[in-house]
Design goal:
Structural class: alpha/beta
Strand order of the largest sheet: 2-1-3-4-5
Order of helices and strands: EHEHEHEHEHHEEEEEEHEEHHHEHHEEH
Number of strands: 16
Helix content: 40-55%
Distance between the termini: 61 Å
Amino acid sequence: MKTIAIIEDNDDVRENLAEILELSGYKCLTAENGKIGIREVRIHKPDLILCDVMMPELDGFGVLKILNNDPELMHIPFMFLTAKAEKEDFRKGMGLGADDYITKPYDDVELLEAIEMRLNKASKLQSIDNSDQGVRQFFNQAKGEKALNKLSEDREVRTYPKKANIYQEGQYPKWLYYVVQGQVKTIQTNEFNKDLITHLYGQGDFFGFMPLLNNTKYIDQAVALDETVLRLIPLEDFKLLLFNNRDFAAKFINMLANHADHNEKQLIEFAYSSVRRKVANALLALSEKTSEGHIKVKREDIAAMAGTAKETTIRTLSDFKNEELIQIQSSHIAILDRQGLKDMPQ
């Protein structure tokens, strides 16, 4: 039998919740304020916590913060009960790592379905590794992933036509961008007015985060490679999660590490790799950002990504075609021998 802790200062609401849950086969712990609730959770370690937001002495946000700092309790699914559906409450709860919200007055069926879903997810996570250390490590990673994904939900959505500028060098950032559909390239221009594609972003990728972290202007330009749909995440929401949710911060640090690793490898490649290797790696990178089975991109974009002249890129693509590494039909390029491109000599 699963145990659910109810932390709620309103006697009628607390008793009604306990009655509904007990009739549904759950065991209930009840507490009339946050301090008592934390004590009960530490003693009994329930399977899920329902907690009111607005309470005297210690509110729901304070309860969640304390639980998140306890390695033995931070894995317990936590759902807020709130009579306020205001944006600030949702943002703050999300930033602290809450799993869900139930808005009062609640529908009994929806409440039970939400609880069942959270319990099922927690059970699946715990079944992956039976060791305490393994469960905590995986659960923390999963919470970071969930927070990262949730950050992009219910945000302003904008559609950019092909070749449209998303942001330009010298602008101050206001958004973290999330790619819903399409592809985006970021470009830097050197002193000789030559463009270099520094990154490609596809569905599920975030971009534009470095200037947000450094509070600086953009040093590059972002352009839609084809018709692209983006979600725009406000700067304050991004920072709220980054500075208040440890799991999200860890996940984002991992993204930054991958970003830096890509930049380092790209610099080494520009310095030491052969033209054939640069063009091969550009094709492989482009193919990873499309699900269509072929690459539709201008030759100058491939050249800008490889750091080679357009004419040199065209000749190299022709060689690859003759060697049956790729197939070219007009502006479409299909990779025939991926391993051959990967194994291209330096």
